[in-house]
Structure formats: C-alpha cells, structure tokens
Design brief:
39% of the residues lie in helices and 17% in strands. The chain has 260 residues and is α/β, with parallel strands linked by helices. The protein has a single domain, classed as Rossmann fold (3-Layer(aba) Sandwich). The longest helix is centred in the C-terminal third of the chain and has 18 residues.
Amino acid sequence: MDRSRRHRFSRQIQFPGIGEPGQERLARAAAAVVGCGGLGSTLVQCLGRAGIRRLTIIDQDEPDFTNLHRQFLFDEKDVAGKTNKARLAGRRIARADSGLEVKAIAQKLAAKNADALLSGHDLVLDGLDNMPGRFLVNDWCVKNRVPWIYGGVAGATGMVLVVRPGHGPCLRCLFPDPEAAAQGADVKSAGIINTLPAHVATLQATEAVKLLVRSPALVTDLRIVDLWRGADQKIKLRRDPDCPCCGKHRFEFLESKKKE
C-alpha cells in the first residue's frame, strides 16, 4: 500500500479493529456482489470505498421507478436511460476510488456461468431478491469453500448470516425446504421501508470487512432486525449434519446446469 492509499484510508487504519495490517489485507482482497438492487447498491458503495483491490458487480436488470425509494445509487435519469444496474454502479463507485478495479457484469447469475463469474473472489455478497438465486450462490460457495454473506429483506424485517464453508452452517441449514423458502414474504408481497435494505447491507458489509481482515469479532450468529419495532436479535444456528448442501455435498442448484 503506497503513501497515497495509506492517507486515503487513514481514518479506517486508525480504528484498532482494522489497523494497517487489516487495511493491507483489504488491499489484496477481491469481492463479488451478486445483485445490485436495494442491498447490492449499498454493498457496492460500502465495499468499494473500504479499500478492497477488486470488486465485481453482477446484475442483469435496469432500474425502474419502484426502485428509487430504496436504491440510493440510482435516479430518474437512470430509469429513463434504461442503463444496466451493474454498469451504472460500476461507473459510480469508480469515481469514488480510481484505484479500485471494478468489473460490471450485465448478466444473471446461473448454474451454467457461476464458475466463470464467481471464481477468483475471496468473498461473495448477497444482493439478490430471490431465494433460488441465493441457494445457487450457497451451493457454489460451499462447493468451492468461498465464504459468502446472506442478506434478506421484506417489510421492516431483515436477516444476515455469514456462511463460512467448513466452519458452520450454510443457507440450507437455515432453510432446509427451498420451495417453502421461495414462498416466503418478499418485497412485492410485503412491501418494504426504504431504510431497511441500507441497514441490512451495512451489517453485511461490516461483517465482510471483519472477515477479510480476519477479525475475531466476526458475528457468525443469524441476525434478525425489525426496524419498525426496534428489535434486534442474534440466534445461534448450528450446522445440520444432514444438510443436503454442506452435510451431504449435494449441490442441487448447481447441478441444474446439466438440464440446461
């Protein structure tokens, strides 16, 4: 890390939980954000400004007017211009740090392209809005032993779980029935308050930094927040030895590529 980078991140280096050794680790790290909506657009801002070396942003969609109340990276001009979210986010975070390597991918993550899009990253962050996509990320990360951070939001309630393959539960331990999980509340059915995605994404991003700097303060419990009621809880989640994914190593969502 050269003198100019050290100066740029001097306030973060001053924080004892990171320090110069932690900032050096961030400077060598690569992260992928899958989905660039309410969660992902904030994750891009937080991780892109933290001093990591490389950031990949994956999203096939364009912003629309229903996004603007909670996706703070976009505006009405972006909706009218019909520009891809990942590319918009990539351009904007690059303005904040010219030393950041940004790759914007205007594609949907799928079983057939997961290896190509996710390989080479130290960490994957969930900015998705659907459970099948999350189960796919979970399969790929568990199979390849890459940590990832789940984030879910609906209404005023959000959840965060750090998944460290080989060191704790995975998403299938939390949601053993994918079909039932896919039927749960989402933004379309439950609505959403505009502060929730940013709040949950900052929790995800904080744990991401902890993980990358190897902090012992990493929170591995399932975190559940209800911003409307002001409730915040942590639940100890144990790894299920019979979990199809991390227990029995059956990667059902990745295997779907054989049918495509």
